[in-house]
Specification:
Elements (H helix, E strand, L loop, with lengths): L2 E3 L17 E2 L4 E2 L9 E2 L3 E4 L6 E4 L3 H13 L7 H10 L4 H8 L3 H9 L6 H17 L2 H5 L9 E9 L4 E8 L1
Parallel strand pairs: 1-6
Antiparallel strand pairs: 2-5, 3-4, 5-6, 7-8
The protein binds zinc ion (ZN).
Zinc ion (ZN) binds next to loops.
Length: 176
């Protein structure tokens, strides 16, 4: 795997060791630093040093790339694998414990999904996709959390305070 440079497009790629100009590589770049083993990139600058063999790659917009990969993962027709689940969760910028809370599953069980010891069931796999898609749609994972309370609790009644005209309501749960 080559080194990922943060420099912009344009200037010729030079070897960090030899300072020599590098030769472009035609093959696709196997992009593994996101934790997925099946992503290959084309259309980016990827080069090799003729002197020492050092490889280097330039990715102009990492954030956009990761979001594009996220969309491909969340819409893929195949079953979500452990690496996909980790990638989607990291793309939401949250810890495994937080994801387990959102999904309403035990943290130990969730860890087994991420470790690949067991795959989530159909409904949970769909929920993972939905939660990721919703967080990207809303643009904020924190706002997603409020739809998924950390635990289900019983309450005796709900009081909705507010103004019908302005459609501003406040929700009050009276816990038993
Ligand atoms: Zn070199």
């Amino acid at each position: 795997m080559g080194r990922i440079e943060k420099l912009g497009r344009g200037s010729p790629m030079k070897c960090k060791r030899c300072e020599k100009e590098m030769t472009p590589i035609e093959e696709k770049y196997h992009f593994t630093s996101n934790g997925l083993d099946y992503v290959y990139l084309s259309g980016i600058e990827y080069a090799r040093c003729g002197e020492c063999g050092e490889k280097s790659v330039r990715i102009p917009n990492m954030k956009m790339l990761l979001e594009g990969i996220g969309e491909a993962v969340v819409t893929k027709k195949l079953t979500l694998e452990a690496q996909d689940i980790v990638f989607l969760r990291k793309g939401m910028g949250i810890k495994a414990k937080e994801m387990a809370d959102i999904l309403g599953v035990d943290t130990a069980l969730y860890s087994r999904w991420e470790n690949g010891h067991v795959l989530p069931g159909k409904a949970n796999a769909r929920l993972i996709r939905l939660v990721y898609a919703a967080s990207k749609e809303v643009g904020n994972t924190e706002d997603i959390k409020k739809f998924f309370p950390p635990r289900d609790r019983e309450f005796v009644r709900v009081i909705l305070n507010g103004d019908v005209e302005s459609e501003e309501f406040e929700f009050e749960e009276m816990v038993a």
